[in-house]
Amino acid sequence: HDRTQEKHDLEALMLKERSSLQVKFKEERDDLINKLKEEKQQLISQLKDEKADISMTLTREMDHVEAKLTRAKEELQVQMKDQQAEAELQLKCERSKLEEQARLAEERSEEVEAMRAE
Fold first, then answer.
1. What are the b/e assignments for 82-93, b being 16+ CB within 10 Å?
2. How far apart are the C-alpha atoms of 23 and 17, rounded to whole Å?
3. What CA–CA distance (Å, rounded) separates 42 from 71?
């Protein structure tokens, strides 16, 4: 009879211990899950911040590049206008020289004609 009672007591103790271990395991598991969820949220928040920083940096850099391009374009337009004006001036000078040469040639031709006529 004592053995049966000991066996029952032992089984009861084992069940109690098992139940206690299951509760402890569940609590530890829940704690770990909650910690992981917190870490996940922190990482998500950190990534969002980093993404926002990168986006702002890219926007600033793009604005800087666009400003540089705009300045370069304006400088090129000024250079092109200057070159065009210079080319037009050279053409006017060349035209004047050619007109002068043509006029002189015409005068000589008239002089030669006048000499022949004499």
1. eeeeeeeeeeee
2. 10
3. 43
Kind and range of the H or E element at 118?
A: none
N- to C-terminal Cα distance for the chain?
Answer: 170
Distance CA 92, CA 99 (A): 10
Structure tokens at 93: 């000078």
- State pLDDT tens for residues 69-101: 999 999 999 999 999 999 999 999 999 999 999
CA distance 74 to 81: 11
Put simply, whether the predicted model's pTM sits higher than 0.85 gets the answer: no
- Would you mind telling me the total number of residues written for the chain in this entry? 118
